[in-house]
Amino acid sequence: MPDVCDHKSVAGVLTDPRGLYVVGERSDGLGWALVAGHQDPHGTSENAMRAETKEEFGLTVTKLELLHTMRLPNLCSGKILPGREGGHDWSVYRIETSDLNVQPDPREISDFAWIDLDQMQQMVDRSLSNMRAGYRLAQWKGPFWEPPQILVCQAIDLVRVSEPDRAMVLEHCRIHPNDR
Length: 180
Known about the structure:
- The chain is of the alpha+beta class.
- It is built from four helices and seven strands, in the order ββββαβββααα.
- It has one domain: Alpha-Beta Complex (Nucleoside Triphosphate Pyrophosphohydrolase).
């Protein structure tokens, strides 16, 4: 992660022939997520998506398809640029790779799994329950989904989130990760 936030993030959807999604448990304890990361220092969002896929899961991207772009208020550990509000512009991609032999980097991903949409929804629901209970992130019972990625996955129709829960997640994203 860069010292200064570039306010640009990428996320990617990678599926296997069975229709399962590869997800990783972040080594920093922030939850399970799709392939994701900051655009900086990779230049373009496409380069960032390729680099994050390699860094996190050890896979080489052969094709990218932009699925969605969105703005989320999620804060990160990077310093906010002067004159900018916190948050990130997200570019969300469908990823194709040369193989599916996942080799996660333990500095980035502590565990990985191939899951279906029902399992993803269960993780999201668990995150929502933890938020409703008012638990701090360190108290969350898991496995749970990383809060900003709840909204990313909702935007591309992978999970269902009610409007009140969406508002709760948006508010949660505005809290610095160290204070969640």
